[in-house]
């Protein structure tokens, strides 16, 4: 797809990258979080507000921080599907944010602790939830970055500071081609491991352009 065609798509359909689908345990796809319309009771997915003992087919509350750590349904958005109440899976969170499936599922990755020791860590769901909750939602930013690209030179480049899990490089390089994002930086270990997985470091041709991770 040519650059101009990508621009046209994101300008006319800013939510092109968003696939807010809820996956069933059997691997199929069920309805999105919307009003009943022609859905059956078993098919309906609704948001559950445990704090206020309420449900909504249209709106769910935002993800809130829990000072003491751990898990609480008062803080983490959950849904009801049929008679079962559960929280969103990491895959569903990736889709709601507009990321490709499995974007944060990078398997084992290497981490350096405060003492300088290197260890191998798995991509735990807790890390994926936190990274996705702190990330950007891609669809609105795809619209913004498209307009910025239209105002820039023929071959625009960018750098991403406090990048998170690579949302900005993902959109930018989709619009402007591979290598158009020069570098990205992030202070947390797991998010930058995700970015490195999808945007491997390369030796720069110019000594002045050094990727920062």
In short:
The protein is α+β, with helices and mostly antiparallel strands and 213 residues long.
Task: Tell me what you see in this structure.
By secondary structure, the chain is α+β, with helices and mostly antiparallel strands. The chain has two domains: 3-12 and 138-198, no CATH class; 22-133, no CATH class. Helix content is 29%, strand content 16%. The chain has six helices and ten strands; from the N terminus they run H-E-E-E-E-E-E-H-E-E-H-H-E-H-E-H. The protein has helices spanning 3-12, 90-97, 125-133, 138-151, 167-176, 189-198, and strands spanning 22-23, 29-30, 45-49, 54-56, 78-81, 84-87, 109-112, 118-121, 158-160, 181-184. The strands form four sheets. A four-stranded antiparallel β-sheet has the order 4-3-5-6, with no helix packed on it. It has a two-stranded antiparallel ribbon with strand order 1-2. Helix 2 (90-97) runs parallel beside helix 3. The model is unreliable at 14-39 (pLDDT under 50).
Instruction: Compute the average pLDDT.
Output: 75
Overall SS class = alpha+beta
The largest sheet has its strands arranged as: 4-3-5-6
Distance between the amino and carboxyl termini: 30 Å
Strand fraction equals 15-25%
Shape verdict: flat
Sheet with the most strands, sense and barrel status:
4 strands, antiparallel
Please indicate the count of domains: 2
The total beta strand count reads 10
In terms of per-residue confidence, which ranges show pLDDT below 50 for 5 or more consecutive residues?
14-39
Helix content: 25-40%
**SSE succession:** HEEEEEEHEEHHEHEH
Q: Helix count?
A: 6
> How large is the radius of gyration?
19 Å
